[in-house]
Write the structure tokens for this entry.
Amino acid sequence: MNEKILVIEDEIQISENVQQILSLSDFNAITANNGLEGLRLAKTEKPDLICCDIMMPELDGYGVLTALRQDPLTESIPVIFLTAKADRDGLRQGMELGADDYLTKPFSPEELLKAIKIRLARIEKPILIKQQYEQAHQQNANLKQQIEVKSQKLQESQYLAEICNEVLQKLLQDLSNPLSNINMAIYMLKKARSDIERDRYLNILQQEYAREMLLLNEMKNLQTLLTPENAKIMQKFHLLNHSKQ
């Protein structure tokens, strides 16, 4: 546990007994022997809970509670009153000032520990709910970020696919022109009637063959160059006609 409990009690024996009970139950127990010292420790030590006697010299339990509730540093700390008598007026006064519980002396260790654990549980539950909410909120934020990254990658993949298709269509068109000329030159070569005509059509075949090979080499180069990053650069400098829809 290790929750810090401040015990404000002017009777030394009771204070030591309560401190021992709390320490044996794994609480970090600190003590003050009067109300003024208790207030000082409450502000400096910031305990998780305070057990406070009511009847004390200098500053009684009601005065301690009033001061605690007026200070933003201590206003939310649960306070359990320890009292030798629990009359109705005293109980009402304590509750009106913001006391969380009463234990009437003499009380058993079980009663003390039960009251403390109940009060601490009421603190821990909202904190746990807040932590769970913050954790869920962070998980949602992480999930949203992952979705955005994957969506961006998907868009880039689609964009690259569109560009690849555009480049492929252009290459197919460019490849068809030399093939048409080659086909025509072969046909005319068969019809040639002189060496001059044959040389002419053979020269056309050689030129178109060289042109075809150049286009095929360009296609091989494009396979290595056409990445999402390079496609964006080519699009930026208008090296591709593709426009993103």
The helical segments are 12-24, 35-45, 61-70, 88-97, 109-191, 195-225, 228-236. The chain is about 70% helix and 10% strand.
